[in-house]
């Protein structure tokens, strides 16, 4: 019997422990099993994560391999199987119709789309000579964010280069063909013009440092002089054929400034004489031009925000206000962007005459089309419900560009109690000391100044300049020396010969060039920022004190207001009113703004998003940048460059009520 042992259980893999009673041995076995289970659970999560990462990486590299090995025509083949045969690119279509290059073409890029490279910098950037700081991969933002911020900012007093730093625009067509790898700006238009026969001898990218005020691009880089010389050269070598100018976005304002500069006498102007534009320019085809400004620019200067930022804050509250890497914060963005004087050219112009007051606006009663409505609603919305019940237009006051609280935005003006902020005592704030290098002029306002802004409650276009001068006096001191935002009473007044008025179409005359044509070409059918609902930020010394109230609005109940932003028709960045009014009314026929009667045309392109991801950004997009790949717009450009007139294109083409809105604006013509 001494040789008998307890039979080992079939499921017992643990070795027996000699010298222990059976009960103790059972406890030891159970303990070992629990330990094994614990160890198994402890590593299972890590194992799963590793497997997941491995699967994602393997799948990614496999798809990348397939993408690089598949025929170039494969995406088109798949797309055609889904959507049917694709139309010929505009360049191919125009070649089949026998069109050839005739007029030289000049591209004028807008804000942020042109590349900037380093020519001189501080020690932290010593290995970046002639490498892009803006555009391309933007790799330096992640590698050395503080250094990148320092080199992209301008001097806060002069609006020019800080000591020891020289950042200059990239030259040539590559300056703005792609904003980042795979993200085209001018590339599609250039490629289609090349199909017709254009090349660098009759195409020119008028690149400039888009951070500077327009006149400072000449003072520092002689950019305006170089544009003048290049246009003269292109006209000369192309048999005297006048140039077709194609500005985009802020480039529209920049070229408006150029047309006054080139004819003005030196030293303020280029000394080309009053007939320079008539001799050298066939047409100006403005694409997405904020001729009367953009509310989005106002929100950017006021709180470094826009609709997208407000939406992101709603998804991840606190992230944008955290100091991650000392770069991914709105405070740092504001500190940098407020040194870019060019942004002040896009502050809404014309005051309440153009943009409306507390109780009226040109777009009053605006209803988006059902097509637009479907694009911005979700499956939760009842598509059969009339838009008027979902969006009570009688409660929308587009003239109130900034309202503190949704109730203020929708109340009658007689029910709003406002306390004037002008002259309010700003007080004192120690935040400048506590917030390291994060500089915004809000820190100099003190709590009393911040409270005064909120107590005014509703701001119209007539209040904007006073508002910005109150919250950012240093920025506005520079800006007001280079730009003006009013309406001229008498354009023959000698004061309007100063360059500060040249980028405002309401304070300057078009050149004496009766044979020239001007086009306003822009996208419509996309909700575009018009007015904002703001709130005070929860007390925190280093935060920007005002935020768009992303909680204001519900897509099911109040489609007109979403994430604290009221929208109207436009290209997602510039409202149709700003892009189209001057060609629809202000410059139409012989007016005091257009004394020679230059012909003007309004060409709207209704947004039609791509049907599948293989179409990329689409060929019928009306979005502010994506419209540069719109086939219909590109075809219009090629036809004009080949000699067609606006009448031959079909004259005006509109989808919005731009002419109706323009009639509501009581502007002396």
Describe the structure.
The chain has 669 residues and is α/β, with parallel strands linked by helices. 36% of the residues lie in helices and 12% in strands. The chain has 25 helices and 17 strands. The strands form 4 sheets. The chain has a 6-stranded parallel beta sheet with strand order 7-1-8-9-12-17, with helices on both faces. Strands 10, 11, 13, 14, 15 and 16 form a 6-stranded mixed beta sheet that branches. The chain has a 3-stranded antiparallel beta sheet with strand order 3-2-4. Strand 5 (178-180) and strand 6 form a beta hairpin. The N and C termini lie far apart (121 Å).
Could you outline the blueprint of secondary structure elements for this entry?
Layout: H1 22-69, H2 74-83, H3 90-96, E1 105-108, E2 116-120, E3 132-134, H4 139-143, H5 145-152, E4 166-169, E5 178-180, E6 183-184, H6 187-196, E7 203-205, H7 214-221, H8 223-237, E8 243-247, H9 250-263, H10 276-280, E9 281-287, H11 295-303, H12 307-315, H13 330-337, H14 351-355, H15 370-376, H16 387-390, E10 402-404, H17 406-410, H18 431-434, H19 446-456, E11 458-459, H20 464-471, H21 473-479, E12 517-524, E13 526-536, E14 546-548, E15 561-562, E16 565-570, H22 576-586, E17 599-606, H23 631-641, H24 646-649, H25 658-664
Parallel strand pairs: 1-7, 1-8, 8-9, 9-12, 10-13, 12-17
Antiparallel strand pairs: 2-3, 2-4, 5-6, 10-11, 13-14, 13-16, 15-16
Helix pairs in contact: 3-6, 3-23, 20-21, 22-25
Family: Belongs to the AB hydrolase superfamily. Lipase family.
Organism: Lactuca virosa
Pfam family, one: LCAT
């Amino acid at each position: 019997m001494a040789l008998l042992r307890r039979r080992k259980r079939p499921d017992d893999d643990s070795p027996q422990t000699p010298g222990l009673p059976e009960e103790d041995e059972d406890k030891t076995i159970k303990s070992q099993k629990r330990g094994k289970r614990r160890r198994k659970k402890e590593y299972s999560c890590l194992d799963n994560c590793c497997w997941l990462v491995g699967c994602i990486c393997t799948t990614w590299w496999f798809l990348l391999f397939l993408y690089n090995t598949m025929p170039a025509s494969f995406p088109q083949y798949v797309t055609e199987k889904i959507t049917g045969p694709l139309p010929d690119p505009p360049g191919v279509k125009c070649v089949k119709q026998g069109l050839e290059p005739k007029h030289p073409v000049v591209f004028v890029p807008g804000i942020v789309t042109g590349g900037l490279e380093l020519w001189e910098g501080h020690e932290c950037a010593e290995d970046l000579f002639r490498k892009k700081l803006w555009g391309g991969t933007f790799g330096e933002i992640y590698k050395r964010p503080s250094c990148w911020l320092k080199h992209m900012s301008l001097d806060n007093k002069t609006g020019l280069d800080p000591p020891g730093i020289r950042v200059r625009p990239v030259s040539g067509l590559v300056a703005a063909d792609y904003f980042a790898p795979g993200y085209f700006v001018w590339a599609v238009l250039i490629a289609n013009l090349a199909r017709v026969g254009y090349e660098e001898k009759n195409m020119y990218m008028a690149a400039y440092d888009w951070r500077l005020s327009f006149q400072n691009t000449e003072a520092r880089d002689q950019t305006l002089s170089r544009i003048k010389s290049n246009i003269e050269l292109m006209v000369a070598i192309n048999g005297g054929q006048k140039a077709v100018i194609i500005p985009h976005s802020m480039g529209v304002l920049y070229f408006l400034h150029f047309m006054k500069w080139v004819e003005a006498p030196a030293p303020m102007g280029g000394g080309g004489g009053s007939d320079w534009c008539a001799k050298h320019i066939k047409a100006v085809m403005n694409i997405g031009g904020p001729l009367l400004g953009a509310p989005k620019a106002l929100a950017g200067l006021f709180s470094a925000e826009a609709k997208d930022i407000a939406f992101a804050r709603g998804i991840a509250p606190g992230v944008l206000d955290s100091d991650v890497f000392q770069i991914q914060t709105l405070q740092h963005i504001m500190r940098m962007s407020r040194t870019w004087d060019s942004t002040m050219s896009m502050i809404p112009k014309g005051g309440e005459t153009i943009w409306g007051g507390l109780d009226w606006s040109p777009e009053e009663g605006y209803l988006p089309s059902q097509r637009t409505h479907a694009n911005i609603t979700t499956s939760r919305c009842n598509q059969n419900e009339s838009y008027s019940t979902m969006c009570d237009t009688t409660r929308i006051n587009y003239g109130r560009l900034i309202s503190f609280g949704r109730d203020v935005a929708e109340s009658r003006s007689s029910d709003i109690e406002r306390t004037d902020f002008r002259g309010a005592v700003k007080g004192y704030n120690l935040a400048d000391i506590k917030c390291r290098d994060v500089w915004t002029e809000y820190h100099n306002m003190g709590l009393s100044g911040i409270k005064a802004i909120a107590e005014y409650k509703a701001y119209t276009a007539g209040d904007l300049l006073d508002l910005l001068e109150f919250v950012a006096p240093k920025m506005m001191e520079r800006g007001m020396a280079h730009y003006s935002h009013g309406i001229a009473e008498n354009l023959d007044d000698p004061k309007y010969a100063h360059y500060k008025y040249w980028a405002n179409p309401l304070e300057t005359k078009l050149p004496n060039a009766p044979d020239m044509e001007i086009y306003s070409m822009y996208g419509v059918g996309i909700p575009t920022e018009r007015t904002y609902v703001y709130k005070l930020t929860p007390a925190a010394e280093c935060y920007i004190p005002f935020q768009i109230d992303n909680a204001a609005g519900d897509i099911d109940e109040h489609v007109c207001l979403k994430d604290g932003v009221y929208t109207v028709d436009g290209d997602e960045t510039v409202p149709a009113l700003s892009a189209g009014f001057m060609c629809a009314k202000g410059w139409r026929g012989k007016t005091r703004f257009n004394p020679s009667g230059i012909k003007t045309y309004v060409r709207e392109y209704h947004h039609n998003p791509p049907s599948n991801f293989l179409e990329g950004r689409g060929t019928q997009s009306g979005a502010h940048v994506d419209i540069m790949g719109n086939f219909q717009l590109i075809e219009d450009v090629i036809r004009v460059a080949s000699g067609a007139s606006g009448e031959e294109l079909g004259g005006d083409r509109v989808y919005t009520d731009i002419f109706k809105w323009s009639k509501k604006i009581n502007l002396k013509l």
